[in-house]
UniProtKB/TrEMBL annotation:
Gene3D superfamilies in UniProt: Glycosyl hydrolase domain, family 43
Biological function: Alpha-L-arabinofuranosidase involved in the hydrolysis of xylan, a major structural heterogeneous polysaccharide found in plant biomass representing the second most abundant polysaccharide in the biosphere, after cellulose.
Main localization category: secreted
Organism, scientific name: Lophiostoma macrostomum CBS 122681
Enzyme category, top tier: hydrolase
Cellular component annotations (GO), alphabetically ordered: extracellular region
Enzyme Commission code(s) on record: 3.2.1.55
Keywords for this protein: Glycosidase, Hydrolase, Secreted, Signal
Protein name: Alpha-L-arabinofuranosidase
Length: 352
């Protein structure tokens, strides 16, 4: 069953890549919950690492929600290998023009503690009346908090799994298990993850049992070339029975962009939407910059959500995406020392 889903997805993706432009446009128009032609504008660099004793090189992987006019952001901080090479930070602001002046609260000062912590996702789990922060710590982990405005109030990490699940371990050679993402429908909560090796995984547990009981992951889709299905998946509800899947990929030139798919079920199957380097969901091909282009990479981030519960519902015609980008001229440093910064994308086409 797993491989039939994979095969179906690969065939659909291959067909989408080979379609002539007119046929590809027709395919995209069938996704009437989303615009046929996605275009975006990007701000300049908005958020930098703080010039403090931590000496972080980059700020990455933002997760963002908007609550009563305040934007709450959780992000990774990164620097060269060593103790604290990856950690988590929280900050908030009411205007993006002031985002960089917001005070960082480093979450290793909470019960989340020190050690490897990265790639956060924030949402409010309504059945528990708790905020959940999902992140990677070598496993898939979560912490909870009753009060979003109290960053010191996060609980200690709890893992979703006892070690690396066998399905992931069996496909992990040459890759890393990364970028956990939780979304729930009315029956189940689903946990997506990637392996930097061309596989996207999904587990599930009944919403009544969440966060316990995550099943053995299944392979949602797979790509023969790992860079075509790399990491940083997002899954959103469009609020009308349609789900949107985004996965970060690496272009032939080494830059980052996102492919997309839609489905009427979180379980899939997933139909390609904007799923090529030439026609991405977000990427250098369809992003215009306010001023000079400070990055060629549209990388790991999140849609701004105003509906903050576990459904991860967004408005498909007024999308804004907080993302990480990096100066393409910086090539002589290790990956952890890349100067990642945060920018904001806004849709620029007319509404659906």
């Amino acid at each position: 069953m797993i491989w039939s889903v994979v095969l179906t997805t690969l065939v659909a993706t291959t067909i989408a890549r080979k379609l002539p432009s007119s046929a590809s446009s027709l395919l995209r128009r069938q996704h009437d919950n989303l615009p046929a032609n996605l275009t975006w504008s990007s701000t300049s660099q908005l958020v930098y690492p703080k010039d403090d004793s931590r000496h972080d090189a980059g700020i990455k992987d933002p997760s963002i929600i908007s609550v009563n006019g305040t934007y709450h952001v959780f992000a990774s901080t990164a620097k060269s290998a060593g103790d604290g090479s990856y950690s988590l930070a929280y900050f908030n602001f009411t205007d993006f023009s002031k985002a960089n002046s917001a005070t960082f609260f480093y979450l290793d000062q909470s019960a989340i503690g020190t050690g490897y912590r990265a790639a956060p996702e924030i949402f409010y789990f309504e059945p528990h009346k708790l905020w959940y922060l999902v992140y990677q710590n070598g496993n898939a982990a979560y912490s909870t908090n009753k009060d979003l405005s109290n960053p010191a109030g996060w609980s200690a990490p709890t893992n979703f799994y006892n070690g690396t699940p066998a399905t992931i371990e069996n496909n992990l050679t040459g890759g890393y298990w990364v970028d956990m993402w939780v979304i729930c429908d009315s029956a189940n909560c689903h946990l997506f993850s990637s392996d930097d090796n061309g596989h996207l995984y999904r587990s599930q547990t009944p919403i009544s049992k969440f966060p316990s009981g995550m099943s053995e992951p299944v392979i949602v889709m797979s790509a023969p070339e790992k860079f075509d299905l790399y990491e940083a998946s997002n899954v959103y509800s469009l609020g009308n029975g349609t789900y949107l899947l985004l996965v970060e990929c690496i272009s032939t030139g080494g830059d980052r962009y996102f492919r997309s798919w839609t489905s009427n079920k979180i379980e899939g199957p997933w139909t390609p939407l904007a799923a090529t380097e030439q026609h991405p969901f977000m990427g250098a091909a369809n992003v215009a910059f306010d001023g000079s282009a400070w990055t060629k990479s549209i990388s790991h981030g999140e849609m701004i959500r105003t509906i903050v519960d576990q459904s991860l519902t967004i408005e498909p015609c007024e999308m804004r995406y907080l993302y990480q980008g990096v100066d393409p001229l910086v090539t002589n440093v290790t990956y952890n020392n890349l100067p990642w910064r945060l920018g904001l994308l806004t849709q620029t086409h007319s509404k659906c």
